[in-house]
Amino acid sequence: MPQLFVVVSTHGAKAASETNASLGKDSLRMDVVKSNDDGRAVLVETTKADPTTNRTCLSSAGDSVTKWKVLFPEPNKLDKFTSPIRGDPLYFLVYFYIKQDCVHDFIDLLLEEAALVHELEKGCVRFDLWQSLDNPTDFVVLESVADWAAIEEHRAFPHYQKARAALENMQAKPRSHDKGYKVLHSVGANNLSTSN
């Protein structure tokens, strides 16, 4: 089974001007999103190319770039990666900083949580788990939901409450997130794209 990677690149105004960009040869999906906090544009690219050895991703020199390997969904479920985001969902990147001795427990917990979110939560558009290639104790959950009601529903589920309680003792420092992103452009390897 192939390993998939994600490159998150801060392009500022440049990303907004690239909303009609197409995918590179190893790319499966590209989302250009705009921060609700400060208006900065961010490119999130899913690729088959290892970004530590292969610079075929769309980011360019001078960008703030972070590189991740995909832990969930499994790479054999490529439809999750090759379909663009449709409509106007909420899009969040939640950063977790985990104690070294808790990494395996954290991954097990979040893989179970991700499976339950996809199975039980109708408002879930995407729930991905990524691990940093530069610091394997850092993780991101990309969470995309249909609307604010889906966020409240997510927080009310027993599996969320259980995972949140378990996370408290695993974190080296508190998780961080922002007020979300608006999807400006999304393109997938199935040649479909959407712009909002």
TrEMBL record:
Listed name of the protein: ABM domain-containing protein
A family per Pfam: ABM
Which InterPro entries does the entry link to? ABM_dom (IPR007138), Dimeric_a/b-barrel (IPR011008)
Upper taxonomic classification of the species? Eukaryota, Sar, Stramenopiles, Ochrophyta, Bacillariophyta
User: In what residue span(s) does the ABM domain sit?
Assistant: 90-184
